[in-house]
């Protein structure tokens, strides 16, 4: 697994027109978030196998999901759902690690919504929120086989550490 940090500049993308979109805080829809995280987990387990399983266990994913409201709690964290035409398309979370740095977690867009720049919208929002909350540093982790995710993060100024 690679760990990435946010550099000085970030790239931003505009949403394509043609559909309605809504980003909402997900604290009243935790079941929907859990469904997305399970889809994401199944996807990366299919791609990465036992190495991914070991990593998720080391990260205590089951504990995180059991206490998801607290893990991403306001005011220092965030948890969003992205809806397209009132259907759940993706999610992203932000957790506080200490006063100066936070971590992006669980960025996921369902396969049928990929290629529409929705991941850009999610990451733009979470980066903007982190800056607004006064975090000086942002980190995230990803797996080496997730080439598209790595390219996205690099567009936003994240670099490998």
From TrEMBL:
PROSITE patterns (UniProt xref): GNAT
Keywords: Transferase
Pfam families xrefs: Acetyltransf_1 (PF00583)
Domain N-acetyltransferase per the UniProt entry, residue ranges: 35-161
GO molecular-function terms, A-Z: acyltransferase activity, transferring groups other than amino-acyl groups
SUPFAM superfamilies: Acyl-CoA N-acyltransferases (Nat) (SSF55729)
Organism domain of life: Bacteria
CDD domains: NAT_SF (cd04301)
PANTHER family registered for this protein in UniProt: FAMILY N-ACETYLTRANSFERASE, PUTATIVE (AFU_ORTHOLOGUE AFUA_2G01380)-RELATED (PTHR43305)
UniProt-recorded name of the protein: GNAT family N-acetyltransferase
Organism name: Bacteroides ovatus
